[in-house]
Amino acid sequence: MDKQADIKRISDLRKVIEYHNKRYYQQDAPEISDAEYDHLMRELQDLENRYPETFSPASPTQRVGTVPLAKFASFNHPSPMLSLANAFTSEEIIEFDNRLKRLAGVDHISYIAEPKLDGLAVNLIYENGIFKKGATRGDGTTGEDVTQNLKTISSLPLKIKPFSKSPIPSFVEIRGEVYIEKEPFEKLNIRRIKDGEEPFANPRNAAAGSLRQLDSRITARRPLNIFLYGIGNVIGIDFSTHGKVLQILAGWGFPVNKLIEQAQDIDACLQYFERIGTKRKSLPYEIDGIVLKVDNLSMQKTLGNISRNPRWALACKFPAAQETTTVKDIIVGVGRMGTLTPVAIMAPVNVGGVMVSRATLHNEDEVIKKDIRVGDTVIIQRAGDVIPEVVKVIMEKRTGREKKFKMPSQCPECGSEIVRFEGEVAHRCVNISCPAQLKEHIRHFASRNAMDIEGLGEKVSAQLFDAKLIADPADLYFLTKDQLVALDRQAEKSAQNLIKAIAKSKNPPLDKFIYALGIRHVGERTAKLLADHFGIMENLVAAKQEDLMEINEIGPEIAAAIVEFFHEQKNINVIKKFAKAGVQPQKKESAVNSPLQGKSFVFTGTMESMGRNEAKTLVENLGGIIHSSVTKSTNFVVAGSEPGSKLDKAKSSGIKIISEDEFLKLINR
Ligand code: IVH
Question: What is the pTM of this model?
Fold first, then answer.
């Protein structure tokens, strides 16, 4: 074999692949098919494997994995990823500054003012300057390990570039936002529509959807970008100000937003808020406000956190984007619980970067209160991710020909009687077999925060239902590719993809499954509490009202709704059908009968098998509590290697000391 020729081929292939990446995304003019692209990638990968000396961190192969993952591993953030308190007015911003000055006992605070990027937060781990792992924020404590996908972002350095005299830390968590610019977002959507795929609602959803692909080759072809704006735990370098952190991040080669400024006082912050607000539309990426951060890091530390928000930072949100349009019609949608929702159909307008043609009118009372009629000129608004809504009618534009809205007395879908229960604002269709409700139920089941079945949105759910291929969510798992191909619009490839996506959802986390069932009053948070408490589906199904009410935060109304749901034979049949199809939610460490329930733990020394954060999550999931110091009420001290003075304190106070192995046995590991 001619080594020289192979090495030349490696260098050519790298260039060719870079070129096609550009054609596809920056110019929206691909010249080759996905299969041809994959073929080039594979050839390059093979050659690089044969000649390891040609390794280069800049090669496209280093940024893209070759095998799709079965699922994302979960990732415990070494230090929690907090969120931000919001402010909407200058008064609130000034109040924030006054509060901090009072708490810190100073009469002046200097801030760093940053644009608030509308993407999704990630945490990146660098060890000795090398990118090791990256994860989504998740619930702030645990996220998803999306390392492979983050590597595909070409502006993200895989290695920290040495910078002036600042040492490279042995460990650092770097935080930032992954986003997609407005223009590439539009192109991506055009391409998706051409390929018969559902377009993304906004750049943020597109970024999140792209980063959460199990196949990093798909992520690699999405125009993702990143800005870094902070650090978490760090070992090996000390910083005194946040401004310095940003300066060093930029020096190390990380993309740091150029609009970030030092603001000497709160007045400068208010001016910055104004200035960035006027620039917003012309920026190539979406922002939804600014973030103010106390510059001095020791002051940040003194101020600390209040629940999940740092006291030292504030998100100042821009007012919701508003536009004027006309109401063409008011239709009535039937939701999952049979709720009738009036929806305004409007002449399409661009509101803050998103085309809007529908706005929820919530309920009849709202329509009457705002006096919205068909033919009216209205002001609508959209704030962040919120569904667009009508702010008010421009009465001066009334001609007298507008038509008043009336709630139908029969369900627009099934013709059944509509009722309005005592004390409720909503009108409901009470027919539990109403097709609109069932379709909505299936759509909810498949949605991102529930079973996350890609490709099963509103249209496809309705199509499957109308074709009588499914009557409930469990039927999804019995669908065949041939059945799908026989439906209109379902091409061979998308049918195959849908079958795959359905099969992939067979082992969901228990809380997602519970949420997906669509039990009245059971949102994501309650589903999580139920999963943590009961551990397996069977325990939840058998739970009595009083068992449910043992859980903090679950009151009689929610408990009754859950019991009622599992008393309904139809629902039990669907659950049995899931089991028959092999749908098996993952077990959770149950808090019921857990030996850890209510027990307090103190850890000392290093554990072999897991980090502190992981141990903490496990103990808490099992109903235990973690304390940092030994007191009379401590139940167990877990001693790892090289334990500290806590061990002596435990010995002298006669508190039970267990080894790491004993701890693992206790939690059934
Ligand atoms: S700092 C403790 N800086 O906003 C500090 N966040 O509402 C937490 N975000 O989850 C984050 N731009 O996704 C920070 N310049 C910025 C940001 C920013 C956007 C997002 C981030 C975070 C959310 C908090």
Answer: 0.59
